[in-house]
Amino acid sequence: MVENFPGFPTRILGPELMDKFCEQSLRFGTRIITETISKIDLSNLPFRYWCEGQRDEQAETADLVIVTTGASTKEIGIER
């Protein structure tokens, strides 16, 4: 639950908020690529990236890259 995001008078679920971000960006012509990336070169524009399983010479390019790594719970061993 996200309870304090600007523009939403009530709380919103994280996945719903992300869907709204996606809808908005698509409205402005964003091309969204959802792939597992095995290598990325951020040293020059356009950025070069390789999807999992591609050979080095088959790089794709992008002017902007948003890296999302996911999330997982990490227990720290404190008893409740």
From TrEMBL:
Protein's GO biological process: cellular response to toxic substance
InterPro entries assigned to the protein according to its UniProt record, in alphabetical order: FAD/NAD-bd_sf, Ferredoxin-NADP_redctase_2
Alphabetical UniProt keywords: Flavoprotein, Oxidoreductase
Source species, domain of life: Eukaryota
Tagged with keyword Oxidoreductase: yes
Molecular function via GO: oxidoreductase activity
Family: Belongs to the class-II pyridine nucleotide-disulfide oxidoreductase family.
Protein name: FAD/NAD(P)-binding domain-containing protein
Organism for this UniProt entry: Dendrothele bispora (strain CBS 962.96)
